[in-house]
Amino acid sequence: MSVEEEGIPGLGHHRQAHWTLMLLLSTAVYGAHAPLLALCHVDGRVPFRTSSAVLLTELTKLLLCAFSLLVGWQAWPMGGPPWRQAAPFALSALLYGTSNNLVIYLQHYMDPSTYQVLSNLTIGSTALLYCLCLRRRLSACQGLAMLLLMVAGAFYAAGGLQDSGNTVPGPPPAAAASIMPLRITPLGLLLLTLYCFISGLSSVYAEQLMKRQRLPLALQNLFLYTSGVLLNPCLHAGSGPGPGLLEGFSGWAALVVLSQALNGLLMSAVMKHGSSITRLFVVSCSLVVSAVLSAALLGLQLTATFFLATLPIGLAVHLYHGSH
Length: 324
Known about the structure:
Blueprint: H1 13-39, H2 50-70, H3 88-106, H4 112-118, H5 121-134, H6 140-159, E1 161-163, H7 174-177, H8 186-212, H9 217-237, H10 251-273, H11 276-298, E2 300-302, H12 304-322
Antiparallel strand pairs: 1-2
């Protein structure tokens, strides 16, 4: 996948190779999340609070950003950090936090299969807000590429994996979940619309903010994750009674936190030097990684639907980047 025209123009061969490597690593780390989370399951459920994992992930990202600045991996601004520029990142953290919590609430108003299919509408909402808010224009081929990404996600969610009959520690795949009756309430449809809007807005706002400020990426991440660490304890406390902060954590759970922290840092670099559209391609391509890892680690079988889903992803990459 090449760098987009709005990303880093005129890259040399070595920088282009580094960019490509970072995109591949982002795709691999993002795709590993679901299989790793499945390996954490005990008796078919996650033994720790989701809000605990989110809080620890934000804290890990904050510590990594602070460490990279302290050891001089990225230059410290002359005259000290401009703290006034930290305020806009509070809104970014609030948007991301709201989006993550809406995902949880949506499960009460629709079945998992319906959510998995309809959540791909975030691709369309992100592309639309990308054009409206950043005043970018997508060609007809690029618009078709976005549509193909949504189709690929829907195919995968509809049954890209199936249980091979072995006992695995993870939850049932989408194909098994589809046995549940399909349902969506009017409130669920409203919340889904709100989720698609906030998810797209959070991505586009973060891109605009990171590109507008001429600050080191590590410092921008420090601002963002400081806001996240301050916000998430409130969300954790408001999530109701449950296990303690570290209760139910295992080695797999620690790996989930570390991988999510690395994923957040990589995605920040994608947003800084690429675009929200680049992020959509990373997320869509990660479905392939997730499926392969699920087959290898959880004993699930790849279905014909999975291979069908990979075709529109490849065609979308060709259409979008071949149209420049």
